[in-house]
Design brief:
This protein is of the alpha+beta class and 205 residues long. Helices cover 30% and strands 35% of the residues. The strands form 2 sheets. The protein has a 4-stranded antiparallel β-sheet.
Length: 205
């Protein structure tokens, strides 16, 4: 309910070219100005909403190699849960994934999905360990989008204890507009190898 009171410039704020700190700082200044016009009970409610929203995000960084592959690192947080994971991908596959994220509507039978980790020696084409998985899908009929991120770190080697690996499965809620901006940022990241692509959650109320 509180979300509808935010000005559009605040509600739709999205970092560009990896400038997350600058973007969030500008957003916080705008929010502080807005809060000066509301009463204390509503102000407390809005501040709780701000803290929750600022702590829900997906950040991607890419470290390319000379063989056409790159290490994709993801940091994700939502609802008090957070995780980090990384895996190697073909850079062309990441570029296709970026294009798939722009589809409207997202396919129900074949939604955009990437996953990487350790490949199985016995089952060709199957992952033995999933270190990073990102999947996008539509939720309901109002255009809301879910982003399911699975991370596992560190990788498990033959002599490692299974319990030494930390895992997280986190769902982010967002919209087609925010997802399209995220896809553009990922395109820029893949072309320039600078900064990061950041998806900040957005929800319908």
């Amino acid at each position: 309910m509180a979300k509808d009171l935010w000005p559009a410039s605040i509600r739709q704020q999205s970092p560009r070219d990896g400038a997350l700190c600058t973007s969030l700082e500008r957003t916080r200044r705008e929010r502080a100005s807005f809060l000066s016009f509301v009463d204390e009970p509503l102000k407390r409610s809005l501040r709780r909403h701000i803290r929750m929203k600022d702590e829900e995000y997906l950040r991607l960084k890419v470290a390319p190699d000379s063989d056409g592959t790159g290490k994709l690192t993801a940091e994700v947080a939502a609802s008090g849960f957070a995780g980090r994971g990384e895996a190697w991908f073909d850079l062309e596959r990441l570029a296709r994934f970026s294009q798939e994220l722009r589809a409207f509507p997202l396919s129900k039978t074949d939604p955009p999905h990437i996953q990487g980790g350790f490949w199985s020696r016995e089952n060709r084409g199957a992952l033995e360990q999933v270190h990073l998985s990102i999947k996008a899908y539509q939720i309901g009929s109002r255009g809301e989008v879910g982003i399911r991120v699975e991370v596992a770190d560190p990788p498990l080697w033959p002599n490692d204890r299974p319990d030494s690996q930390n895992t997280a499965r986190i769902e982010l809620m967002t919209t087609y507009a925010a997802l399209e901006r995220f896809a553009r940022d990922l395109d820029t990241l893949l072309k320039t190898n600078r900064g990061e692509a950041v998806l900040i959650t957005d929800r319908f109320t």
